[in-house]
Write a structure and sequence with these properties.
Length: about 250
């Protein structure tokens, strides 16, 4: 049977496969030529040429999670390479933004990326942006709410206790929020000067916690707050908190 005797659909299919084969060979040869003649990028420099995660996702052809796994490995490699060499993290937000767009429910990526950006990348605004993106994508996550609260709590250059308290309280209201969320919220409110709200939060800790140490802590802090309000010296209920910082390897 000649090719002309084949059904029209089959002829079109064979033609399409032939075109695909020719284009595939041409693409392979072009890629090989480019690899030979173009300069190689410095390690991890190619990350600068990644488009945004929204543009990467269609290119994964339905395999976004697989691409996210690869992006996670590359992100960790990127961090490790610069952590052990120059401590420069210029592309880190770009890397984690792509990763979390490909895998929006990958909570550990938001947390790792945000704290690395804030503490070692010295870019708190981008760290906050990444965590807020995580909250928007996972509004029912008590873990992410708590971690964002903690990011504010250890903010380099000065703690944001009001911001910390807001998200600690959000974490406390969510089913998977860490058990310590409420007393972190109370401590943050107390040390930001919001003593009445802090007192109410400590009351909840004292009434609901199964941990005797936390109940004793709550009772003690409630006493401090009552005494400070009664004396008119509200600052007596507040501690002078320093801001922790990350030491780099040459500072240890």
């Amino acid at each position: 049977m000649s090719a002309f005797a084949l059904p029209a659909v089959r002829r079109r299919m064979l033609g399409a496969w032939a075109v695909a084969l020719v284009l595939g060979v041409a693409t392979f040869r072009l890629a090989g030529h480019c690899a030979r003649v173009l300069p190689r990028p410095a390690p991890f420099e190619e990350l600068a040429y990644y488009p945004s995660g929204r543009n990467v996702e269609p290119a994964t052809i339905g395999h976004a999670e697989t691409a996210a796994d690869l992006a996670w490995l590359r992100a960790v490699q990127y961090y490790g390479e610069h952590r052990s060499t120059d401590n420069r993290f210029d592309r880190m937000f770009h890397v984690f933004d792509i990763l979390t767009t490909l895998s929006p429910h990958f909570e550990s990526a938001y947390v790792f990326g945000a704290f690395a950006l804030a503490q070692e990348g010295h870019d708190f605004a981008r760290a906050e942006q990444l965590m807020l993106k995580g909250i928007d994508s996972n509004p029912a996550s008590g873990r992410l709410a708590f971690e964002l609260g903690f990011l504010y709590y250890v903010k380099p250059g000065g703690r944001d206790l009001a911001g910390a308290a807001e998200f600690f309280e959000q974490a406390a209201r969510l089913p998977d929020g860490p058990p310590m969320s409420r007393h972190f919220a109370a401590f943050s409110r107390q040390n930001s000067g919001d003593l009445l709200v802090a007192y109410q939060l400590w009351q909840q800790v004292q009434r609901s916690s199964d941990n005797r140490y936390l109940r004793d802590m709550a009772e003690r802090e409630m006493g401090r707050i009552r005494g400070a309000i009664a004396s008119g010296h509200r600052e007596q209920a507040q501690d002078h908190l320093s801001t922790p910082r990350v030491l780099f390897k040459d500072e240890r």
